[in-house]
Amino acid sequence: xxxxxxxxxxxxxxxxxxxxxxxxxxxxxxxxxxxxxxxxxxxxxxxxxxxxxxxxxxxxxxxxxxxxxxxxxxxxxxxxxxxxxxxxxxxxxxxxxxxxxxxxxxxxxxxxxxxxxxxxxxxxxxxxxxxxxxxxxxxxxxxxxxxxxxxxxxxxxxxxxxxxxxxxxxxxxxxxxxxxxxxxxxxxxxxxxxxxxxxxxxxxxxxxxxxxxxxxxxxxxxxxxxxxxxxxxxxxxxxxxxxxxxxxxxxxxxxxxxxxxxxxxxxxxxxxxxxxxxxxxxxxxxxxxxxxxxxxxxxxxxxxxxxxxxxxxxxxxxxxxxxxxxxxxxxxxxxxxxxxxxxxxxxxxxxxxx
Length: 354
Hints:
The chain is α+β, with helices and mostly antiparallel strands. It has three domains: 12-114, 2-Layer Sandwich (Beta-Lactamase), CATH 3.30.450.20; 116-194; 198-354, 2-Layer Sandwich (Heat Shock Protein 90), CATH 3.30.565.10. It is 41% helix and 27% strand. It is built from ten helices and 13 strands. Strand 4 (74-83) and strand 5 (88-97) form a beta hairpin. Helix 5 (116-162) packs antiparallel against helix 6 (169-190), helix 7 packs across helix 8 (240-257) and helix 8 (240-257) packs antiparallel against helix 10. The protein starts with 16 loop residues before the first strand and ends with a strand.
């Protein structure tokens, strides 16, 4: 049998998603890139109105109407669409009126180019700059606080020796203990920038198993930690103690949010040809820490990696700050997606250092 002639077969070679529609906004053709982008098969796309395939804004709807009625083109940047499975995508979108003798029912072409990776890279770069400035401010403040604290503690000790009434020593002890607590806090703020990394070949699964055993000892009743490991992953070059601290801080936060009762999953996967902080790596390891807790409150989600930001009344707000600092020292990245019932921290670490 002779093959059916397809006037749009050349569009299959394009990397960007292309959708052709008629005057009623029904899909007449979609290339393979469009099928992948919208997560549907080409056969299920044909003859369906576009708004049944994806959800989009009134602005894009107006652009489609104008392409039909006024023969106008449209170009939009950072257009948000929602696929049928509710995944949100950010795209650059172009709508162009077309006229083809081979396909007279087709009257417009829509081209979609995903920009999620560009937005992610830009957001990551901006976040790193903000956090570096924030940590520099905190370090300077910690240096300024440490010296007066030493003086306060010393004065309280001298005063305690001069007191004849033993009951008054209770008050000097309060001063001494609070000064010690604040000095410890200042030390923790300064310590990530003082300690030199001890680099060795490290098994990520050995690190996670260490974290798992520590948490199960801390929360023996009600906490379940599941493993979903890719055991074929190679060792990475890193500081074992720092990496233990990274995953312990994140997983402990999850356990505390669930009050020690719930499920946490440790998942490892490989990632190839990735860009981390403007560097290209041939191979990286993705480590996901997933919990089924209440989620991160909206009011701190954008600031949770900043020093002294905590969702718990008794929290110091240093756990995630230290974790991110150590990840960045390993040339990696850390991201978080959270909603009630599922919070996922994704840590991506290169196998070899640049």
